[in-house]
Amino acid sequence: MTADRTDTDDLDHPLFARLYRAFDPIDRRTFGPHRRDLASDLAGRVVDLGAGDGAMFPYVVAGPRGTARTVDDSTGAESSLEYHAVEPDRTMRRRARSRAADVGLTVSFHDARAEALPFEDDSVDVVVSSLVFCSVDDPDAARSELARVLRPGGEVRFLEHVGGSGRYRTLQNAVTPVWKRVAGGCHLNRDTAAQFDADARFETVECVDTGVRTYPAAPVVRGQLRLADA
């Protein structure tokens, strides 16, 4: 495991990190199948955006073949997985390091924000975003960074909760100012999937309602984007 530090204003939410760890059994039951889908057949340079405490790591290691390496079906050659975890929260990053060691996943950790990724242009094959864009300070800048670092035809695989509708949305709007203070900057009412769909730099390959309802952070959608041709 290696580290690459950039300036994140020493972001740290230890209380939220403890609550997040307590939520782990629920995460496995509710999001486990969807995290497994995000991790399916990963290959090349992969960036786990907002990796948190490493919730994706066990699914990456397990995978459909029970290993963190994949096979190129067209050639039969083995292809290495180069896994990077971007996480600006100090406590989350420390716990993610521990989880990576526990599951045996080699990870390069980066103390950075989604709005300023420490990767070269056109250098990433897949970005995995699981329950991240709700707490990104500037989603527009973050999407621009994804478009910058992804190689032509690169993927974004996402699992995100989005704003609801009707009276439920009104409630989310009212609760969000307080909620984001105690939940690490999480916005209950953010329309992440719609923002992705409206961004001409990406093609929406799939976007489905998972049926998961973790109120008030619901509904939850899973999808895949592909970087559009220039």
From TrEMBL:
Gene3D superfamilies: Vaccinia Virus protein VP39 (3.40.50.150). PANTHER family: METHYLTRANSFERASE LIKE 7A (PTHR45036:SF1), METHYLTRANSFERASE LIKE 7B (PTHR45036). Residues 81-156 form the Methyltransferase type domain. GO terms for biological process: methylation. GO terms for molecular function: methyltransferase activity. SUPFAM superfamilies: S-adenosyl-L-methionine-dependent methyltransferases. The keyword Methyltransferase applies. Its EC number is 2.1.1.-. It is an enzyme of class 2 (transferase). This is Class I SAM-dependent methyltransferase. Keywords: Methyltransferase, Transferase. InterPro entries: Methyltransf_11, SAM-dependent_MTases_sf, Thiol_S-MT. It comes from the Archaea.
